[in-house]
Amino acid sequence: MQQWTLECRRLGKRFGERWVFRGLELELATGAMLVVRGANGSGKSTLMKLIAGLLAPTEGAVALRCEGGAVSDRTRFLGWCAADGALYRELTGYEHLRWWAQVRGLPDDRDALMAQLDRFELAPRAHDWVRAYSTGMRQRLRMAIATYGDPPLLLLDEPDAGLDASGLKLLRQVLDEQTRRGIALFATNRVECAAWGDLALELGA
Description:
Blueprint lengths: L3 E12 L2 E12 L3 E5 L6 H9 L6 E8 L2 E2 L7 E5 L10 H12 L5 H10 L15 H13 L5 E5 L7 H15 L3 E5 L11 E4 L3
Parallel strand pairs: 3-8, 3-9, 6-7, 7-8
Antiparallel strand pairs: 1-2, 1-4, 4-5
């Protein structure tokens, strides 16, 4: 199993005159699950987006390393799931996953895609338009997309939003599987999920 390391060095982000956070130091290795908590506006989503490369830091840097060597484009090695992640109403769940597979150079044959959708209990609705999905089903689809191909770095920004008990159980399984092969960061304010990780980061404290 490859050894991965995620590093945040003196990381800071400012919007206008307001610093969301500053001087953040973080180092995670394969097998780690970090739970990120904090009040609304504390910077949970900002941190996730910085690590995902969706935002540029005001200061500091983020690096992903494999076997000690820096990865030049970490976006190729991460899965991203956010409660507000964009989905297209006029595409089906299957079409979303197939598009993602093609963009990332992952297997896009029907059997592989359907197996992934079945894992998230979406196979019976695979060919329905996403506009007909419930909030929880959309979250399951976002998780299916984020985890397809088993990325070594998995970023989940409040993926528990809208999930029922069955969905939360599935989310816990996803996180447990991720720590057996890579690194997971999980942002949540749900009390019962706070103890899932072996590490915790409280922003805005």
